Amino acid sequence: MKPFSFRGDPAVPDFDDCAPVAVMDAECAVCSWGARMIHRLDRTGTVRICPVQSPLGAALLEHYGLRPDDPSSWLFLADGLPHVDFEAVLFAGQRLGGWARLTAVLRIVPRPMRDWLYQRLARNRYLLFGRADMCALPDPAFQKRFLR
């Protein structure tokens, strides 16, 4: 897939795509925790967070063949290229650096098993971990990261 292919998609609203974007479920407790970890570990302060439930988040998921009405997918866009699901988690960890690089240890698990595990957790995340509203977090610095 060509970098920044979403720019040519009329269904994707224009947005500042000069920095990485994590598209994640704003109602999922695990995703809310992940968003807080991005905020805490991203020393550059450049990674933005886009809720799947927003028009931009839904359009980006659809552009990459993912279903916004089933937000079990996690999308991380960096340099205009998509990284999806568990691979997105690993790529984001590598990109964030510092303690986040520890996610690289998970590469020892074969990819088919990682994908299978991710799908099982993602599909049952509300049952296992509950719901949370990441957009309701009061930290102004955290709120600046949001694309809606």
Your description of this structure?
- The protein has 148 residues and is α+β, with helices and mostly antiparallel strands.
- It has a single domain (5-136), classed as Glutaredoxin (3-Layer(aba) Sandwich), CATH 3.40.30.
- Helix content is 38%, strand content 11%.
- It has helices spanning 29-41, 55-63, 85-96, 111-123, 125-129, 140-143; strands spanning 21-24, 48-51, 75-78, 81-84.
Task: Estimate the global geometry from the Cα principal axes.
Answer: globular
CATH hierarchy: architecture: 3-Layer(aba) Sandwich
In the predicted model, the low-confidence regions spanning at least 5 consecutive residues are none
Rg over alpha carbons: 14 Å
What are the secondary-structure elements, in order, as H or E? EHEHEEHHHH
How would you write the strand order of the largest sheet?
Answer: 2-1-3-4
Features:
148 residues; alpha+beta; Glutaredoxin; four-stranded mixed β-sheet; 6 helices; 38% helix
Topology, pairings included?
Blueprint: E1 21-24, H1 29-41, E2 48-51, H2 55-63, E3 75-78, E4 81-84, H3 85-96, H4 111-123, H5 125-129, H6 140-143
Parallel strand pairs: 1-2
Antiparallel strand pairs: 1-3, 3-4
Task: Give a nutshell description of this structure.
The protein has 148 residues and is an alpha+beta fold. The chain has six helices and four strands, in the order E-H-E-H-E-E-H-H-H-H. Strands 2-1-3-4 form a four-stranded mixed sheet, sandwiched between helices.
